[in-house]
Automatic annotation (TrEMBL):
Species: Strongyloides stercoralis
Transmembrane stretches, start-end: none
Protein name per Swiss-Prot or TrEMBL: GLOBIN domain-containing protein
Residue segments, region Disordered: 1-25
InterPro entries: Globin/Proto (IPR012292)
Molecular-function GO terms, alphabetical: heme binding; oxygen binding
Length: 237
């Protein structure tokens, strides 16, 4: 869930005209590469306690079928997962759109922001499976960054439960629509992919909550500093 919001909506009044700068191309670029950013200097958080339980056999089964079977049969897997998740929980649309109102498109599936978010998610998973070979240290390192990235959506109602909805929808699509060479391999893939997605989501949630604590602490410190600096109004000039 990694395409960053890059639009600024300014207040519209009789004296001010709307100045909205669209940066869809930059959004897509960030969606594809945002996960390459490095975590904050806080070296170890609670997420390092989350166990990576994929076995060698499970890694191989994911690598074998991910690109050649799953993405070939459902190339828009992540877009459809997002659409189904929004249908199940409409509030998710407000989060993605940062409460800027209707995305003004006839079909939600053609919304550029949603499409590039889906592309970014697909690239992230493919990187872990193909490029990182599902090596725990690499997968963990990339996953830790996602929590901080999702902080930007907290003012718009983002909740970790949205990730559970997303998780169930992607598994449902794979289970119902992807044809494997045998039923046994389908079951093996689903079990392994469930483990992988659960690990990624758990890391994201733990990192998100950890960063949110830092944000709230910072906000309290700023508020306290501002209050300490207030000069009482006496009514005199």
């Amino acid at each position: 869930m990694g395409c960053t919001q890059a639009k600024i909506r300014q207040d519209s009044t009789a004296d001010n005209e709307i100045n909205k700068k669209s940066t869809d191309s930059n959004d897509c670029l960030k969606a594809n590469h945002e996960f390459e950013r490095r975590p904050s200097a806080n070296s170890k958080t609670k997420s390092h306690l989350v166990k990576f339980t994929l076995t060698k056999e499970e890694k191989l089964i994911i690598q074998k079928y991910w690109e050649s079977t799953v993405l070939v049969q459902i190339p828009d897997l992540f877009l459809r997962t997002m659409l189904n998740s929004i249908k199940e929980s409409p509030k998710l649309l407000d989060v993605i759109n940062c409460r800027m109102g209707d995305p003004n498109i006839a079909e939600l599936s053609e919304w550029p922001k949603l499409k590039c978010m889906a592309k970014g998610n697909c690239n992230f998973f493919t990187k872990q499976i193909v490029e990182n070979h599902l090596e725990e240290s690499l997968v963990r390192k990339d996953s830790e960054v996602l929590g901080a990235i999702h902080i930007q959506y907290s003012p718009y109602g983002f909740k970790p439960t949205f990730l559970d909805i997303w998780h169930s929808n992607i598994l449902k699509l794979i289970k119902e629509e992807v044809k494997f060479d045998c039923e046994n391999n389908q079951e093996k893939f689903l079990n392994a992919f469930t483990k992988l997605a659960h690990f990624l989501i758990t890391i994201l949630i733990v990192e998100y909550e950890d960063h949110m604590k830092s944000v709230r602490l910072h906000d309290r410190e700023v508020s306290r500093s501002q209050n300490d600096g207030i000069i009482p109004c006496t009514g005199e000039f």
